[in-house]
Amino acid sequence: MRKSAPWMCKLDERILEHVDDEPWSSSRVMASLTGFQYASEGRLAERCRILSRIGFIASLHGDAYEITGLGERSLASEVNAALYEPWGNE
User: Fold this and answer.
1) 3-state secondary structure (DSSP) of residue 60
2) Entry pTM
């Protein structure tokens, strides 16, 4: 079972699964897909920024992201996401 964190939402899991299946994606691309029909492009972009801050996905250029090794390990239930804090020292 995946170990999510209190700051995570179901959309985060969907984003991780999507970028794991694709070489890259963006909030604009995801917003156009059936699996994300209830999420706005802005909300997807916000969640991508948070997942990127944690290190689960990485920004390629602008709003294009790819999954990282840490993100893959999270999907494989090898990482406890609760150990990562997206609102750390900024």
Assistant:
1) strand
2) 0.91
Instruction: Kindly list the domain boundaries of the chain, sorted by start residue.
Output: 10-81
For domain 10-81, give the fold: Arc Repressor Mutant, subunit A (1.10.10)
For the beta carbon of residue 46, count every other beta carbon within 10 angstroms.
Answer: 14
> What distance lies between CA 49 and its chain's CA centroid?
8
- Structure token digits, residue 52: 């990127």
**pLDDT tens, residue by residue, 47-90:** 999 999 999 999 998 899 999 999 999 999 999 999 998 876 44
Q: Which of 68, 13, 67, 11 is nearest to 42 (CA)?
A: 11
